[in-house]
What does this fold into?
Amino acid sequence: MSVELVLISVIFAVIAGFLWHEKFSRRATLAAKFRGPSPYPLIGNGHLFLGSSPPEILQTIGKLVKEYGKVVRIFLGVDFLLFITDPKVVEAVLSSNTLISKSKEYTFLRNWLGDGLLLSTGKKWHSRRKIITPTFHFKILEQFVEVFDRQGNIFVQQLKALKPNQPVDIYPLVTLYALDVICESAMGTTANAQLNSDSEYVQAVKDITHVLHLRMFDFLLRPEPFFKMSKSATQEKKAIKVLHDFTDRVIVARRNELLQQNGKHDENRNSHVGDESLGIKKKMAFLDVLLQSTVDGKPLTNMDIREEVDTFMFEGHDTTTSGISFLLYNIALYPEVQKKVVDELQDVFGNDTRVPTISDLNNLQYMDLVIKETMRLFPSVPIIGREAQTEAKLNDLTIPAGSGIAIGTYFMGRDPDLFPDPETFNPERFSVERSAETLNPYSYVPFSAGPRNCIGQKFAILEMKSTAAKILRNFELSVDESYKTPVLMAELILRPENGVVLKFNPRQ
It folds into this structure.
């Protein structure tokens, strides 16, 4: 090697070392201004979570919040994270137009969801958000209510097949119901998950979510090189192929149908998959919007569309499963709440068995309070993750570039400074009068807020109302005596490790 090359190598090494030192010394200076447990070299505070089960991880975070306050500094290896439960700081984060990048944990979803609305940023995110927003127009949501009702009837029939007051873990049943709902709503096709829980597609959804949840907390699977060498990577690849193949077939079938309706011929006509074999319905609002949309004058490709459809499949069944399960649990646990809900259902519906309208569901005002109180205690997304791409100023806090930001919605909902007597289930705390007097708007953000708020919030609330109404008009609910309380674990979604075991007594 020549002397010149040696000198150049040394110069580059010195520059790299200087930049590395500048980056980490700046971060260390800023990090020192925040309270938190003392980190160890390389592992940071990772020892606090090492070997912990998901429920134990949630408990550990709670202890850190209690000990260090509403803004806690945590090092996960060499990664720097701020855990925030202060509504004023939460407002600064969620209302920001620059802090819209998701945290690193979300990248585990990229193999399945690509660069869809959940994971994209910048211009792509803005254009996709603009395209998808009309999907939740009132008239289109009305079509989704019909889907809720139809799939709800199947759900009720599944429950009627049980013996009266037979204990059952409803979480897996709700998962299948929610999967059928979102599959028909997003793609206009049926997965028949409730009637065929062993189908290849349903099993693929189970497998992919299992792998994703495993990667959240297994530090050996988090780095991509280690993950690719694991059995979980093989399982993920197999599941994703099934999921992508199914979505691709539906997209091609619907695109061909639209072309034929316009008097055109699709060049891939020979590969056309029959609508009937896919169970495609005529109402496919979400998929139709994507197929007929353009960005900069160009239509979305099948890959673009698949990203968004798969994103809805993930977000639309996992989160609502959590929300519906905990809603039914609270209604079953508190007989006086259940009586008020049932009385309201009688006032709104009487003995009418027609399909509810959005107006009917909006009239369930007390149930709305019960849902809000449920999501205060059991938010479907217990921690909202962001990443500061550049150094950021939040009120009087300076966040280092590359920092993770975690908003603890679960812990905020149980904070006595924000919600007096937080462990008491009290739907009336969300009445208009009380909320206006005492509630900081950013104390309660189960659907996030600001530019990246949940685009499907109305969809989710309507589905929860429709499902609860359907079940309560057919059954009296109670919690099984041997079931004490949900053992919570905070992954991307809040889940009960021990399920939700209820009993259903048919109403006369």
Remarks:
- Residues 12-22, 264-281 have pLDDT under 50 and may be disordered.
- Residues 447 and 457 are 7 Å apart (CA to CA).
- The first helix runs from residue 3 to 31.
